Amino acid sequence: MLNYDESLLKEALETCLLVKSVAELHPKRLAEPWAKDRFVCRSYKLVIELNGVPVDFYFGVKKSFPLSLPYIFLAQWDSFGILPHVETDGYICYAQEDGSVLDFDDVAGIAQEALSRAIQVVVDGISGKNHQDFLDEFGAYWDRLKKVKFFTSIVSPGDQVKRIHLYKVKGGAGYLADDEQSYKKYRKIKPHVPWKHYPAIYIPLPIGTVITPPHPDKFWELLDIRKIVFDNLRADQKSELLSLLTKPHHEEVILLSLPRASDGETLFGIKFKGVNHEHPLHEAGRASEIIPLAITRRDKEYLLPRGGSNLALREKRVLLLGCGSVGGFIANELTRAGILRLTVLDKDVLTHENLFRHVLGKKHVGKNKVDGIKDDIEGRLPFVEVLPIPLSLENALESGKIKIGDFDLIISALGNVTVELVFSKYIHGIDSPPVIFTWLEPYGIGGHALLTRNGSKKGCLKCLYQPEDGDLRCRASFAEKGQSFAKNINGCRNVFTPFGSLDAMKTAELATRLAIATLNGDIKTNLIRSWRGDATEFLKNGKKLSSRYSASNDHFIEEANYHFEECPVCHEPETV
Description:
Protein name: UBA/THIF-type NAD/FAD binding protein
Shape: globular
Radius of gyration: 32 Å
Structural class: alpha/beta
Domain Prokaryotic E2 family B: 23-151
Distance between the termini: 82 Å
InterPro entries: Prok-E2_B_dom, ThiF/MoeB/HesA, ThiF_NAD_FAD-bd, Ubiquitin-activating_enz
Domain THIF-type NAD/FAD binding fold: 312-474
GO molecular function, one term: ubiquitin-like modifier activating enzyme activity
């Protein structure tokens, strides 16, 4: 796509510090794996002097160069032993291409900067300066070992040695799990499917442990493995491990955790086959074959943060009232945020009329919305439990199907003001967790999320609905009072309020962010948040805006003093 002067590239390489010679490689060399696998279309052999010794490097570019970074290789990748950031094909990882902005007009500058960085990586590796980088790179080296087998782990890592289990379905891959319950829940194993399990051991190496990856052509011996384990474990960990080295099986598996320098940990495994009368980690133990296991992590501690979820929320219990347009999106985002135990309540079934502004699709038409939400979320997200309650709020409370005190937060997206006002009064008469009421307005002019019972009783839904001229209206509304917004397209049974899916999503986001902040303890008071949308469609339909809408040009409004002093629900008389 972009032509450049090849002579300038070669000249730039020749003038680099430490470079003794540059020669273009014959095109046949580009069929070799190191070049072919990375789509190198042109390459040069460079002789570079390191510590007084000439070392061969390869400099290669793809067709997309200079819109992409060049590749730089050590011709003999292990000539200095195993070095951080040098892969087994010799490729030197000197920069992260994601997010890099290249001055494509300066071909010489790109080449020289890339080569300079690559040389520095090798120099730092030889001197040991970047040896700690093995902590972050260990998994990449381990996965490329010869004869490596791939297993999946849903083990929750921690800092204690513990018994875990290896589970296998006939013809399937191996899974490492803490126990049978977590394995069956994650895999959703059907009752008639046979599977086997074998004991295994989880061994977390302490922070500060640094291990040089094994050479791909020569794996560790038993003595190497024992030394790595016992030379690094704390005394209490050694004691626990020794207690688990009993009654060995013909095959044994250990799962090790190596803390990363940046954050988290790398999991890697080892399988011992042909075990004798002692466990291979025991000094008298033997194994006829030792196999490295590359671990694909599927544990919640790994998956949740990578998806932007908050691990602190995983033990929180949330009750969601209403699974309509707004509630459905809230359920989605709460679970994505890290809420793993969600109870959803709604008595309605999904109809075709709901489809274009609801999170569920046509396969759930005719089913209870709560059952559809459970099916949809649990089918997409591991570890999440959705408890569906296909009842009205009144029936659920009367029958004891829900107990307010069982939850850390309640969100109401019922869309029925009368029922929500009654519920607001109810929760102010009992010991209740924080409650969020959320709703949206017609034609995309806005949406709201009100937080109450958050450390103070002052401020409730009723505060927004005080009699005015004999009429109850919402003080937070962006629409002027006395207007009807219900539309009828096919008789009274098909009356609906006009709003779109984007409006429902935006209101759900508002409520979900407020919920997360509340559960994290970031909000210490009751408040109401509103998003203010475009009023073009609203006005086009002959409707009138309220003074609250017109009083601000802000797209986001937050008020912490919405309490009505004479509110009959949350007003607290002064004590004498």
